[in-house]
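Below is a complete specimen:
___
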Amino acid sequence: MNLASLRYLVALHEHQHFGRAAQACHITQPALSNALRALEQELGTPIVKRGRSYAGLTPEGERVLDSARRMLHERERLQQEL
């Protein structure tokens, strides 16, 4: 699990759209989708509801989102302290 994938998940939740989330992260939409699929494979569970477009997060995805926010906040805090 890398911090970039967690940042992508947070961006997807914030923007509610794969393309806009990718743009906010300065990557392509396929790269964002692939990173999130890899994260799902690593965790062994779906975290993003997919239909014709973004349909929200699964309950597991909500838990991952909460952890992602904490981890990214801690990283930022540590970076500022150093």
Observations:
- The chain has a mean pLDDT of 96.
- Strands lie at 48-50, 54-57.
